[in-house]
Design a protein that fits this description.
There is one protein chain. By secondary structure, the chain is α/β, with parallel strands linked by helices. The protein has a domain of 156 residues: Diaminopimelate Epimerase, Chain A, domain 1, CATH 3.10.310. It contains eight helices and seven strands. Strands 1-2-3-4-7-6-5 form a seven-stranded mixed β-sheet, sandwiched between helices. Helix 2 runs parallel beside helix 6 and helix 5 packs antiparallel against helix 6.
Amino acid sequence: MKKGVFRASLLLMLLLALLPCMSALGADDRQRVFDEAGLLTSSQVNALEQRIAEISGDIDMDLAVVTTDTNPKSAEDYADEFYYDHGIGFGADQRGALLLIDMDNREYYIYTQGAMINVVTDRRLNDLRAQVKDRLSAQDYAGAADVFLTRIHGYAAGGKESRSNPVSPMRLVIYTVCGLGVGAIVCLIVLAKYRFHGKGYRYPFRENGTLRLTGKEDVFLNETINRRYSPPPPPPSSGGGSGGGRSTTHTASSGRSHGGGGGKF
């Protein structure tokens, strides 16, 4: 009786110890390439699934690639609903990104959610969109998915976005010295041009500055009204916490806020 209880307890402990491994295995086996339009070969789908599993584990953010040839909605709304209906995203903020290739409307959409919104800043998104569009226009659908995964991996793993054309301290010193030098030259030229000859010269301001009023009259000419234009508030956006850039957010028809963008190809 005691041996049976001991064996049962030991088996239970082993099962509990294997639960994390089983969960991780199940997460790796999740489908993340949904080729509903039949644009990819089976080998391409398998390769993309493997890459997504590796990249997602490295950056701790979910990724997905979706193709469709039937979409009565906008590409943005389709991507938004697909993202949530298929449980894409890690953590409470459902951080991740999705690439939609919509053959019905010849559109693509890059959808970002959670912490991924700040990773894919507007500057990075514009570059990513150009790369994806070029491959889609060439009917290289696997290449479009591959560049999407590669760029997202680089953005998330690379840290903060570098500022464009940074000014080094040495350049700042050179620019300051040059500015002061040009300013000094201009001042010397002006002084030399307006310098009076002779040390004892005084301008006869009393003789040349006399004013005598002979009459006074007030005339009303016109009325001036000043108007100030108040521009509309800018669209909501999330700050570039993962880089020096700005990440614009959008609101889908579902009311959910997300990042990303797309276009025709």
